[in-house]
Amino acid sequence: MSSIEELAAEWLRLDKDMETYNEIQQLLANHNRAELEKRLRTRIAFGTAGLRAPMQAGFSSMNSLTVIQGSTSEKTCKILLKPFIKLRTLHGSLARSVAYHSSDVAVLLTQAPVQSKVVKKMRILTLTQASQGLAEYLTHTISNATKRGVIIGWDARHQSAKFASLVAAVFYAKGFKILWLSDVVHTPLVPFAVTLTKAAAGVMITASHNPAKDNGYKVYWSNGSQIIPPHDAGIAASILENLEPIRSAWTLESVDRASSSWYNCRDSITKSYYDEIEQLIQPLKALSPTMPLRFVYTPMHGVGEAFMRHALHSIAYSEDQMQAKPDPTFPTVKFPNPEEKGALDLAIATAEANHINLILANDPDADRFAFAEKVKGQWYQLTGNEIGILFASIILDAYPKDADIGRLAMFASTVSSRMLAVMAEKEGFHFQETLTGFKWLGNVAQDVQAQGYDAVYAFEEAIGYMFSRVVWDKDGIAAATVFLTACRHWMSMGLTPWSQLQQLYKKYGCFHSANTYLLSPSPTTTTAIFTHIRALSAPHPHPTHLGTRRIIRWRDLTTGFDSATPGHAPTLPTDPTTQMITIELDGAGQVRATMRASGTEPKIKFYVEGRADSERVAKEAAEEVLEALLGEESWFG
Q1: What transmembrane ranges does the database entry give (predicted)?
Q2: How many C-beta neighbours within 10 Å does residue 613 have?
Q3: Strand 580-585 relative to strand 549-556: parallel, antiparallel, unpaired?
Q4: 426: buried, middle or exposed (CB in 10 Å: 19+, 13-18, 0-12)?
């Protein structure tokens, strides 16, 4: 194993960004071996989400070298033990944080201490490395990749524009046509542009709704969806074979922007995007006459406002002015995620001051969408599952009456509400569940589309919604536009989104979610917990009870076992390197619960849903099972 001095020397040899060069130089001068170990010993992981980490010098972080070069290894999050576990619940009213007692515990920290210049810590080396590996992989994998080119976009975070320029310099040096989006964009515009131009790939510089100190590098394949196996592993391997940065990758000065290999495509791409948005909502507009609509919108200090204004050019709305313009410090929120407690406080204050009952929100890169409504004098933020079902209902209402409903296809991830499956069974359209994440939802939907279905829509409980007419990925602007058009339809019938949801519960049954998470000290601890749970009923293949309820189905996508299928083989892909168990239980209120290890954070996540004829029974069932999972004498106690 290399000494820390050898690793530091290698960094200083490779890094041409003087700021990050000096960071490592200073740590050496201060003999700060612990911090050097954090920064240099492990490499930032390249997975299906690309790269995402704090911006700072070191192989484990986002910086100019690792974006040019890239690498793969362990996760970069660190944790600090505390005498409690933070939980996050999304059921009930506004999302809120609560504390749950435990003897050993974890609070998520960033990979390294926050320093005074957080604005400059993603750095050039990381970007250089990732781009070189990706470029080589595309060249050897996709026919005419260099001629087809690569779409490059970035958000308004610190250093995003700089990192995008470095990505462009690398791909230009490798002979690729550069399809340059010229200014800040929302993330969905990149996969939209990949599909429209038939580019070989797309790269978006964003950390979505992560804290201000983070940035990221997101990759879209030539089909306009996020990368999935085997491409993630192939790109990671290619990165490791291309760690030496080419000299011309460190600056755009070597790029001839007047050449035929450089195309500023922002104007044509955005025009086509807005045209597709308009085509998407035309069938919904035909459902009812135009009605006046008032709402508050917040882009959460991100890039969404300009795109929302263009998409909704015919609709007047009120903005939360304190969060309307891009600000990479996210000064008014602890976390720039609409789901987090307090994130919508300013929007609610704006709505109250203007006597408005509807609030719409995007996260900073505008690929997610959130909604809150004032119900009986109290603000209620709908969950991702509830919004997802409302979207499905309006799609059904607007679907051509003379079309074959059996060809209509909708999708949800396995941790999302089962209500969409119930709707499909009752209405006759095709439903399919996928693994978690839009990398799976988008790619599976495209596969189903190729089989002759009309794969129009997919959603996930984490406020992500895909409308394939526009893009094969989640899109917060498309979602907001569809939602507002649907609101006009519902209001023409004397309904609000909330009351429309109650109508759906009457028709399809009541569903209640109780989702949360635990923070785990390490992947080893997480694996040990799941291994212990599997062994609780030995020699039986799985536990038979949870609390007082009998387990009537056990699906383990880690070991590849499903008690409900012939031969006990799961229909979804399995992965022995991850942890995911789903159980279905008998008793009052049908309950399904999924427990899984997060692929991007040191968390064990829980998704519990109760189904019953009444909201009370569904809620009680879900919360009973969640308590059974988390109580002191339970599996995760």
Answers
A1: none
A2: 12
A3: antiparallel
A4: exposed
Please give the Cα distance from 162 to 214 (Å, whole number).
14
Output the CA–CA distances (angstroms, integers) from residue 203 to 243, 467, 548, in the order listed. Answer: 19, 21, 50
Place of tokens 């040019």: 68
Q: Catalytic residue among 60, 160, 208, 413, which? A: 208
Q: Is the dihedral of CA 346, 348, 349, 354 positive or negative?
A: positive
Whats the size of the chain, residue-wise? 637
Taking only the tens place, the pLDDT of each residue in 199-253 is: 999 999 998 888 888 888 999 999 999 999 899 889 888 988 887 777 776 766 6
> Would you call 537 helix, strand, or coil by DSSP?
coil
Closest by alpha carbon to 364, among 312, 318, 325? 325
At 262, phi and psi to the nearest 5?
Answer: -125, 120
DSSP states along 588-608: SSEEEEEEEE-SSSSEEEEEE
Residue 349 contacts by C-beta under 8 Å, 6 or more apart in sequence? none
Report DSSP state, residue 420. H
HSE on the CB side for 538, CA within 13 Å? Answer: 6
Cα dihedral 316→317→322→327 (10° resolution): -70
Interatomic CA distance for residues 20 and 123, integer angstroms: 7
State pLDDT tens for residues 352-374. Answer: 999 999 999 999 999 999 999 99
306-331 pLDDT, tens digit per residue, is 999 998 875 656 666 679 999 999 99
477, 367 contact by CB (below 8 A): no
| Nearby residues of 556 by Cβ (< 8 Å), 6 or more positions away | 534, 542, 562, 570, 580, 581
Could you tell me whether strands 296-298 and 318-319 are parallel, antiparallel, or unpaired per DSSP bridges? parallel
Q: Is 315 helix (H, G, I), strand (E, B) or coil?
A: coil
The torsion angle over the Cα atoms of residues 132, 72, 4 and 29, rounded to 10 degrees, is 60
CA gyration radius, the chain: 24
CA distance 464 to 146: 32
Name residue 374's beta-bridge partners.
Answer: 379
**Structure tokens that stand for 306 in this block:** 């300009």
Q: How many whole angstroms separate alpha carbon 188 and alpha carbon 257? A: 25
Number of other residues whose CB lies within 10 A of the CB of residue 316? 9
Token pair 């099972």 is found at: 625
Say which amino acid occupies 405: I
What's the CA gap between 365 and 157, in Å, rounded? 9
**Residue 71 designated active-site:** no
Q: How does DSSP classify residue 567?
A: G
Tabulate helix, strand, coil % of the chain (nearest 5): 35, 20, 40
Report the alpha-carbon distance of residue 607 to residue 583 in Å, rounded. Answer: 11
Residue 601, judged by CB atoms within 10 A of its CB (0-12, 13-18, 19+), counts as middle
**C-alpha 432 chain-centroid distance:** 20
Sign of CA dihedral 251, 254, 257, 261: negative
Cα–Cα distance for residue pair 139/149, rounded to 1 Å: 10
Residue 76's pLDDT band (boundaries 50, 70, 90)? very low
Separation between Cα atoms, residue 530 and residue 513, nearest integer Å: 22
Whole-angstrom CA distances from 430 to 73, 452, 503, 573 are 39, 11, 22, 20
User: Contact, 385 vs 417, CB < 8 A?
Assistant: yes
